[in-house]
Design goal:
There is one protein chain. This protein is mainly alpha-helical. The chain folds into two domains: about 5-375, no CATH class; about 385-490, 3-Layer(aba) Sandwich (D-Maltodextrin-Binding Protein, domain 2). Helix content is about 65%, strand content about 5%. Strands 2-1-3-5-4 form a five-stranded mixed sheet, sandwiched between helices. A hairpin with a 2-residue loop joins β4 and β5. α8 (about 155-175) runs parallel beside α10. The N and C termini lie far apart (about 75 Å).
Amino acid sequence: MNKPGLFKLLIFFIISLGVLLSVYQFLYNRSLWNDEATLSLNIIHKSPAKLLKPLDLAQVAPLLFLEIEHFTFYFISGTEYGLRLFPLLSFIASIFFLYQILKIAFKNRATHIFALSLFVFNSVLLYYSSEVKQYMSDVLVANVLYYCLLKTYKRDFNRYITLAIVGAVSIFLSNISIIILFTFGLYLIFNSYKKKAWHPGIIYVFLTWSITFGIYYFSFILNHPTRDYMVGYWSREQAFLPLNPLSRSFYLFLFAKSQMIFYFLFGYGNLGKIFFPLLFLTGIFNLYSRKAFGSIMLITLPIMVHLALSGLKMYPFDKRLILYLYPIFIITIAFGFDFCRVKLAGIVKPKVLAKLAPVVVVIPIYFCSFVYFNSFPMVHTEIKQSINFIKSRLEDNQRVYVYYDLVPAFTYYNQTRFMNLKNPVTYGFYDPDRNNYINQLKLLKGKNWLLLSYEGTDAEKFIIGTLDKLKYKKIESYTFGGASAYLYDFGNQ
């Protein structure tokens, strides 16, 4: 097979495998975890009109995303598959839009293969492709907007009318769209100044975006009741940039977030932790050496604007909230990869380089291997397995206690066709002093099933260890994927 034929086949293989992996993750239908379940309860219980108002349970999501989720849940399946469908379609569509962007930015297919592999086989993206949250649609919005900006149009007017319409819709679909649109606004001004040609369509674009965002902001964002809660939560998560550039904490924050991006977000191990930052900087250098200042703006401004917003405590800078930046990092790294490829081609003889071409097959295989090593399909807290265990053994005279962190997911499954439990249920509540969890349990009488979570905490170990020390009788136990079920006899029924 000739080299172009091999590369085309590889690209087809990468895209197809990405679609298959995401569909498999979707069909696996992992359990909803706390945050997903809380949002899902709003989606399934509120009418489309009520979804336009502040949500219950301290949840926030873009309005159009909520309406789409409501539609897919009720009119397609009435199950979790309906809730997960839009994130899945967003991931699949994102692959195709990213590929179109890569074809615009790079002529070399080896670079396409490298960049596509980084996106398609990223375990974080594959996980969020079935997450009932807006983060994957954020990625789609970013990819669509960049494609609409960069693609070739027959007439300039078509470019601006497309940007105006797509940008206006994106404001209602994604909270991060305004960061991208702000970047595009500065880019359009810079590009017009550089070419010394101002198209009147730019004014229409700015007016459309400004009016749309103004309506959205004053109708749905200003004085939102969850703001104080969100600021407090994300402050504890250290997601806000310290504003003093002379302070040590400012640089520690930037270092920690760079580690988060190149290690945890990319998810390709220690090699990526070293390799990708170098390629990212090489990519910036590549663009700078070519005086592609407009491209540098499109790459760096969204990152800087997001960091500035986090410093003002307006939008946190954290892994799932910056997922939309991942394609931007990939494209920058691809510029670094392409720079190295060109330099290598200048050193190595053409005949030797032609013989090395099949080595490009290793790229998707290498990145795909990380999907396997990251325990694909990925789960969070598999409460459904523990619920099924309880259901199969639950007797009429027994009660159920639900640990506070599992209450939203348990409530969702109890209110849908999955459970519909008739036995009495005691819902635990959060307490910073975990000894009070024991005080909650001491109030129980008779035989109780305890539904607990051990994901990311030792609370379950503490609770069970304390109950055993207090000589409460443990009758049965089951543990799977971050959630556990225990049957205890608390006596004095």
